[in-house]
Amino acid sequence: MSTATKEPGVIRALRDLPSNLWSSIFRNPLPSNDLERSSTSFTNFFLHIHPVKVHKNTLRPIYTLGLGLISLFLFLILIVTGVLLMFYYVPSTTQAYDRMLDLRGTVAFGIFLRNMHRWSAHGMVAVVFLHLCRVFFTGAYKKPREFNWVIGVVLLLLTLFMSFTGYLLPWDQLAFWAITVGTSIAAYAPLIGKEIQFVLLGDATVGQEALLRFYVLHVAVLPSLLVLMIAIHFWRIRKDGGLSRPERPAAEVVKVRVEAAATKRTFGLQGFVRGPFTKVGNVPDESVFSWPNLLLAELFVFVLTLSVILVLSLLFNAPLEEPVNVMHPPNPAKAPWYFLGLQEMVSYSAFWGGVGVPGIMVGLLILVPYLDRTAHGVGRWFARERLLANTIFLTMVVLNVIFIIIGTFFRGPNWDFVSPF
Amino acid sequence: MPVTQKQVEEPVGRRRILLWLSSVGLFGSAVLSAVSNLVFIKPRATYGQPTRFSIGKPDDFPSGTRISLDVKRVCVVRDGNKLAAISTTCTHLGCIVGISDTGFACPCHGSRYDQDGNVTGGPAPKPLPWYKVSLAPNGEVEVDKGIQVPPGTYLNV
What we know:
The structure holds 2 protein chains of 2 kinds.
Chain A: H1 9-15, H2 17-25, H3 34-43, E1 53-55, H4 61-64, H5 67-86, H6 96-105, H7 110-137, H8 146-168, H9 173-186, H10 193-201, H11 208-239, H12 258-262, H13 270-273, E2 287-289, H14 290-315, H15 337-346, H16 350-371, H17 387-409
Antiparallel strand pairs in A: 1-2
Chain B: H1 5-41, E1 52-56, E2 66-69, E3 74-79, E4 82-87, E5 98-100, E6 103-105, E7 112-113, E8 119-121, E9 130-135, E10 141-149, E11 155-156
Antiparallel strand pairs in B: 1-10, 2-3, 3-4, 4-9, 4-11, 5-6, 6-7, 7-8, 9-10
């Protein structure tokens, strides 16, 4: 009303600029009640991957151990450090090793970034595998989550292949011979083995073509596939009803007295819902708001993951052996630790150790939710009802670990048995 | 005028055929592009080592020696005036076998071969192949890794 206090439009616009800018970016103020908490999760692009509310069981650290989240965060660290390393790397047999030395010597934080990349990669292989074990031992792959388990197995394979292709890039002795052995294993695949090897290497032997091919796979093809699969994996978690959790106690199952209604000649729909059996509100609400509960849990896991990787990268340097010498394989020539179980099996029979047994194991792994159709024991660690399934799986895991330990510590020159003690 | 059965079914049948044809067309082009991608990534020419190469004069290999040319991945065996070339690529998983007292030994998975390349131990599935050796007009010995010869085939020099 009073024209005396009226400011010019521009001044007011400038004064309100910060708050207008803020509120145009974030549509909600920091939430103070439940409605705002839900709309914060709902309307924010980065938060809307979460449901508005999650079941309490989802947030129990002892249930999930945070393994899936750790895998994701390690992958994010790998993308960031990987892209940074790409600025200095050249996929050429004459330059690659020198670039590794440059990372060590002249590039600021070069060695630190390489360490982070290497330890995150090892970590991701281990954590993805542990995540698979967690899902198995809690029976979380059962209906309706069968297909997400299959996507998970594909993600494990992609992670291994990512790690394998990255292994060649430093072009040192370790890299060269590990890839020589690894691609020769592929050649034992029936019918198309030789073709696969030739297409992978782009040549008859490991050389410039192989380095270029592995580089393209490592920085473009496989990460794209991995991102796509991770997206489907997460989307399916939501669509399959959130993380698995224990079944409700039997007392809470809703029963409808049909027989009472059926005796009557005519009855309406309301005949079914009359009485104490209304669906709505007769189960305790065990869910909590994603903001801030889930968010804080995720933040905690992220900080923990990053800190561990940072400390490891400060303390230990990623190994770099002598430059490639195609004439002299190191003796013994060993693959990365997660393939040493495979290499140990390969030392008995190339076909069965490298193609047959791993192929059968991956096939069984994919088929697990379609072979085990019982619905019991979901959402609990080592449920008694799942004793047989868990024992079989545990045996497989222990056998794999034993093979890896033998390959790592008990094999010396010419792959002879040696004692590490 | 009553509509006959034929008049009703005809347009449906046509649509069905069109649908079927376009599905086949789409699926076919998807398969074709997948195949052409595979054809693309399989190299037609390689840039690596030639399969046929010269290894020098016969006199470079004195009688009774077994000299391993690691870059070429062959071991040249000279016995009297007989000469042969045995592959040093392990038939198990492609490592380079080293010369040992009894023949060849692989550092990767412990395969062992005798002097003629026959498997004596370890996981190797096949003996080491022998390659064709010939004398070029300029007097140098030529090895052709593209042609395998039966073990025990020597070139007289």
